[in-house]
Amino acid sequence: MSFVGTKKVTRFDYVNYALLAIISLICLFPFLYVFSVSFTDPKAYIPLKFYLFPEKWSLSAYKYILSTNSFLNALKSTLFITIIGTLMNIVVSFTFAYVLTKKVLPGRSIMLGAVVFTLVFNAGILPSYILIKQLGLLNSYWSLIWPSLTSAWSLIVIKSFLESLPSELEDSARIDGCSELGVFLRIVIPLSMPAIAAFTLFFAVSHWNTYFNALIYLSDSKKWTLQVLIKTLVIDSDSNGVGQAGAGGDDRVVPQETIRMAAIMLAMAPILVVYPFLQKHFAKGVMLGSVKG
């Protein structure tokens, strides 16, 4: 009895798998440490000690973080920027990319050239800051949304994906009396759900992790995003930005390290929760966009 096409596992495969397992564990250890310290009881926490698992479980750090106005304000700011920004990214990117697929559109080559130009050349930080200031968007959430409505890379990939869809479906819809807007909403969008799911994740992660632009455009600490707030906790030695906003003048003493790790876990949690639901569309959406160049 022979097995046709069965690949023999060699020593190289075993060594390769072992190295990949070791690298995976090395990458996993920092997350385990952050998780462990965040759930460690403040009374059992010992600085400069490596924690793989909490010696004594406690939610004190999470209760403390969630009771502060600064963290709640940062969470609201990040949720607003992520939800509104992602929705606008999807609408602008797919409508613009759909327009670029139409070869009969006047000025299509000029628009496509402008998109590719921005992929190669960038104005820089100073001109961007001056533009945001002249538009009156400083210290506004829209300073983080409007400038990043889409990107050249996203447009090119989405355009490639839309061009891979059968054009006969659009032609048959037009024969049935469907308008261009109807073709886009009833034919193109339903067929583009894998790509929409993939780019929703791309855009959402980008907005959720917004740090540098929020740091230079938002001067009001009440409008800080989670990433800026975590920077003040992790990098700055004084974390009074969280402590002074505690609820009801609580006198609880929670070690700074457990507060920092709890804040990091809370910032990572939403993306870790959402990603598994979009994972099945993630690879499919990106691969379909690479079929045509």
UniProtKB/TrEMBL annotation:
One of its GO terms (biological process) is transmembrane transport. It is found in: Cell membrane. The chain crosses the membrane at residues 12-35, 79-100, 112-132, 183-205, 259-278. GO terms for cellular component: plasma membrane. CDD domains: TM_PBP2. It comes from the Bacteria. Its main location: membrane. It is a multi-pass membrane protein. It holds the Pfam family BPD_transp_1. Belongs to the binding-protein-dependent transport system permease family. It comes from Paenibacillus cremeus. This is Carbohydrate ABC transporter permease. Keywords: Cell membrane, Membrane, Transmembrane, Transmembrane helix, Transport. Gene3D superfamilies: MetI-like. Residues 75-277 form the ABC transmembrane type-1 domain.
